[in-house]
Amino acid sequence: RHHRRDAEGGTLGGREAAAVISAQTCTVTIGGVTKSVEQLRASLVLNGVGEASFDTIATGAAYVPSDGDAVVITLGGSTWWSGEIVEATCTFLGPTSGSRASVVAHDKNALLARALSNGIIAAGTLEDAIDSVTGVGGVWNDVGITKDAAQATGPSLDVITAAWMDGAALAKYLSDLSGYVFRVDATGAIKFWSPGSVSSGVTFSTANGNFDDITWQRDRWDYRNRVWVIYGPSEVRTVSDPFVGDGATRSFSLHYQVAAAL
Fold first, then answer.
1. How far apart are CA 21 and CA 44, in angstroms?
2. Which segment of 40-49, 166-175, 181-190, 244-253 scores lowest on mean pLDDT?
3. Dihedral, CA atoms, 192, 105, 39, 208, nearest 10 degrees?
4. How far is CA 122 from CA 125, 163, 180, in A?
């Protein structure tokens, strides 16, 4: 039988405990300096930019974080989230009370938008395409993005024309072509993987008691079961190309030849 002593020295008993779960220590640093924060929220987003928001409290003197300041969130001593400040709204609390700043930061996925591609990526595997932009001289490498060491080879892709395409658009294009999802992690490494192949390591269940509520949504915005192919100066020909969806693939190759060079 396990007993827990409360803050006033009393004894709470009479409950069986199978395990004791300790809360992980969370810290937030801005520009390498640990800050006291309130109302911390942070997200990790696939194929998009994650966001963190929080309030900083400064007593005795005003403190306003600067745009572009590095933000690092650690859990249990390990870096979990990192990015840069994009917005700060400051409220001064009086000449001796200090200040409160409401901060918004974007994670390292935002770095993709700073890259600009204008060239041809040779045919090869998905990993080959990633290597071409994360290697030395690559447009993603130039903004501080590297390839994840555990990157899979992935499917084969045709020649890719990236004409004045920013890095975020190129990443989403590679995602559409391959059917893989991607994310830039807290270290600045990008990884593409097939849906369902990576586990979060956490099982949500009522038995574990590790959630309050879970919301999910299903949609079919990208679904099409009919395509019209127009050829010639004025003719229309109806064709069918059967395929079976697997719930993950977003792009299907046509199995018939629409036109041929004479």
1. 24
2. 244-253
3. 0
4. 9, 14, 19
